[in-house]
């Protein structure tokens, strides 16, 4: 049966009703939400039951939004987990994450942290089977906050175990002398490198800044003997330093003396060579003169030789031709007496008389009394 065949009636038995007005329905809903409309025909506004619900929803929404606001400073980084899965790494500044959906882990990544094992926990066995206590301090910070929070369940415990493993490996490969004295710095560097390698292999996100190894100590039972060994090592180093200082003082002086001797030898060599060359040149010149006048040159050479010899003599013996007397002339005493007035006490006049008498004797060939007495006086 068609709709129109019902005579204008609703096929469901609703009588002669009209379709609902949608605009009217929306208007009534709006009045309920806003508290409009009239109640009881009195003309006064009737409170709507939906207004408090809407206000509550708005308050909850504002509180939820406010809970997701946070600010990171320059030293902090954050890791965001959304529904338990890694979502993002947050940098410094203003940030917002939906509350109850994201979980944020924030930490200071530039702060230097320290780890120092308790005393007595670092007793280790060296390669030469000696027990030693090696106290140390590890300074570190967070290099990768994602690895620090997500790769390892307990990064600090991992750091402690890796430090213990690295130190025992290095100390167990070294002798006691290197651990307690000379090689401690090299061991410290090796521990730092090995520890960082372990942490990188584990993916901890930790960066080792420095490893400080304090002075290694033996167990208390043998501490006195170890102190004696350390004192002996210190004395050894002191003596070595003193020997090196003495060597540094002596070697430059010896090198200077050797260089001076070399320079003197070179100078003497040059002098001899120059003198020999001069003598050779003089001989060549004499040879030319001798070839021109042999007798004169020979006589001149003889006189020069006699002059050279006599100038260095301080006593002269004069042999008179045809006589039995030999005259003795003490030229050194004559020179001293005339020049300084001392020695023999002879005056200049007496020296003049002595020379005059000697010349007369050489002319006549007979000695005089004055000459004899003066000669006796000089003796």
Question: How is this structure best described in words?
Answer:
- With 379 residues, the protein is an alpha+beta fold.
- The protein folds into 5 domains: 23-67, no CATH class; 68-108, no CATH class; 113-218, Tetrahydropterin Synthase, Chain A (2-Layer Sandwich), CATH 3.30.479.30; 232-312; 314-378, no CATH class.
- Helices cover 54% and strands 16% of the residues.
- It contains 11 helices and 12 strands.
- It has helices at 22-34, 51-67, 145-150, 155-172, 176-180, 184-202, 223-292, 294-311, 331-340, 348-364, 369-378; strands at 69-72, 76-82, 85-90, 93-96, 102-108, 113-115, 123-125, 131-133, 136-142, 206-213, 315-319, 326-330.
- A 3-stranded antiparallel beta sheet has the order 3-2-5.
- Strand 7 and strand 8 form a beta hairpin.
- Helix 4 packs across helix 6 (184-202), helix 7 crosses helix 8 (294-311) and helix 10 crosses helix 11 (369-378).
- The termini are far apart.
Low-confidence stretches: 1-17, 37-44, 367-379
- Strand numbers in spatial order across the main sheet: 3-2-5
Helix content: 40-55%
Query: What is the count of distinct domains?
Result: 5
Rg is 62 Å
What is the CATH fold-level name of the largest domain? Tetrahydropterin Synthase, Chain A
Proper CATH architecture of the largest domain: 2-Layer Sandwich
Task: Output the number of helix runs.
Answer: 11
Q: What top-tier CATH class of the largest domain fits best?
A: Alpha Beta
Distance between the termini: 192 Å
CATH homologous superfamily identity of the largest domain: Band 7 domain
Structural class call reads alpha+beta
* DSSP strand content: 15-25%
Order of helices and strands: HHEEEEEEEEEHHHHEHHEEHHH
